[in-house]
C-alpha cells in the first residue's frame, strides 16, 4: 500500500477538520472492508485516512420513542448482537447477517455499505424499505437525506467534498409493520447479489388489508432502486396473491438491469418479480406475527 | 514516507508497544514488525480468512485492519491460542482428524473456530459451516475441518 497519514479524531468536528485538511485526498474509514481492499489493490490513491470509529456518535446504537439511531460506523456484528434491534427491527438482520462472512461482519458497517454505493449492496434496499433517513455532517454543517435519494450512480452518492455519513435514523415501526430482505445468489454464502429485494408493509388492524408498502431492488439499475409504484399499487389492497402479483409485475417493469458475469437481463427481470413477491410475503407474515427472523434466516441459508 | 506511529495494544494477553507505518495493515505489522508469522496472507483482500485474528473479542480479517487502528485494543492471534505450552483442543483435534494438508489456511481456521466456540459452545454442523464460510481451504474439502470443530464442541459438552 502507498504511504498514508492516519488520524483518529474523537469528535465529529475534528473529523470535519481532518477531512478538510486532506482536501480531496482524505477519506473516512469505518470497517475498511471496502476502503482498505481498494487501497491495497491500488484502485484508490489517498494521502490521509480518517478513522471515524473513535467518535462515539458514529458507533452509537440507540432506540428510543423516536426510533432507532444507528451510528454509521457500527459494525454488522454489533447490530447482530443487539437484542433490542433484533426485537424491534428484525428485518434489518436479514442484511447484516449476509454481508460477507463472519469476519467481514466483525468490521463492515451499514454506513460503509451505503457510502460505497454499490448497486448490489445488500443493506440499501432494506434501508429503503425501512424509510431510513441519512444524517450527514460536513464543512457546511449538518443535513439529512432520504436513503432512496442517497446513491446517484455506481460508487457515487450525494456526499460533497469533506462530508461524511454520521448516522442512520429508522422511524419507530408502526403497528402491524413487517419487512424483509431477500437476495438471490448461486451459492449459499459469501457472494454478491444477482438481484436483491427489500420490502415492507403496514397492515390494517385486522391484518387483511395492506395500508402502505415500500419495495426496493438491488443489482438491477445503476443505483439501488426504490420502486414507488409497486408500493402505491399495494396501498389499500387486500392481502392476496393478485395484489402481490401486481406489485411483482411493477417491480419487474421498473428493473433496468445489465447482463454480466452474475446474471442476464431476462434472469434479473424474472428475479425482480419473484424476489419482490417473496419478500412481500415474508413482510406480511412478520406483520401478522407468523414468521420469525430465524425462520427467514433459514430461507437465506443463515440459521 | 509517513512518520512511524507507536501503537500500544494488548497482544495475546501481553501489553505490547510497536512501531508501524500508517499504511501497514495489522497483518503486515504482526508478521513483519512483531515476528508473529502464524497469521498468513492468502488473498490480502478479505476473501480467504487465512489472516483472521480476534480483535476485542470479534473475529476480523487482519489484512483489512490498519495497524494504527488497534491502539488500545486487544488482539488474539494464532500464537495466543495454545495455553501453557499445551495445544488448544482445536489444534489437537485438527491433528487427530487430519484437518490440514498444506497448512496455510489452518491458523485462520483455528482462530475462526475458536471465535465460534467462544460465541456458541454447542454449534450444529450448519452453524460450523456458516461461521467458517469466510475461510477458504484448497486441500481438505472442509469435511475434516468441520468434523474436528464438532468433535471439540462435543468433547466439551
TrEMBL record, chain A:
- Listed SUPFAM superfamilies: CO dehydrogenase flavoprotein C-terminal domain-like (SSF55447), FAD-binding/transporter-associated domain-like (SSF56176)
Source organism phylogeny: Bacteria, Bacillati, Chloroflexota, Caldilineae, Caldilineales
Q: Which PROSITE patterns does the annotation name?
A: FAD_PCMH
Say which species the protein is native to. Answer: Caldilineaceae bacterium SB0664_bin_27
Q: Where is the FAD-binding PCMH-type domain?
A: 1-175
Q: What is this protein called?
A: Xanthine dehydrogenase family protein subunit M
**Keyword set for this entry?**
FAD, Flavoprotein, Oxidoreductase
The Gene Ontology terms for molecular function here are: FAD binding; oxidoreductase activity
Pfam families in alphabetical order: CO_deh_flav_C, FAD_binding_5
Q: InterPro entries annotated for this entry?
A: CO_DH_flav_C (IPR005107), CO_DH_flav_C_dom_sf (IPR036683), Diverse_Substr_Oxidored (IPR051312), FAD-bd_PCMH (IPR016166), FAD-bd_PCMH-like_sf (IPR036318), FAD-bd_PCMH_sub1 (IPR016167), FAD-bd_PCMH_sub2 (IPR016169), Mopterin_DH_FAD-bd (IPR002346)
Keyword Flavoprotein tagged: yes
Q: What is the superkingdom listed in this entry's lineage? A: Bacteria
UniProtKB/TrEMBL annotation, chain B:
One MF annotation (Gene Ontology) recorded for this entry:
metal ion binding
Q: Does the UniProt entry include the keyword Oxidoreductase?
A: yes
Q: Which residues form the 2Fe-2S ferredoxin-type domain?
A: 5-81
Keywords assigned: 2Fe-2S, Iron, Iron-sulfur, Metal-binding, Oxidoreductase
Superkingdom: Bacteria
One of its Pfam families is Fer2
Entries under InterPro entries matching the protein: 2Fe-2S-bd (IPR002888), 2Fe-2S-bd_dom_sf (IPR036884), 2Fe-2S_ferredoxin-like_sf (IPR036010), 2Fe-2S_ferredoxin-type (IPR001041), 2Fe2S_fd_BS (IPR006058), Beta-grasp_dom_sf (IPR012675), Diverse_Oxidoreductases (IPR051452)
PANTHER family the record matches: OXIDOREDUCTASE WITH IRON-SULFUR SUBUNIT, XANTHINE DEHYDROGENASE IRON-SULFUR-BINDING SUBUNIT XDHC-RELATED
Question: Under what name is this protein listed?
Answer: (2Fe-2S)-binding protein
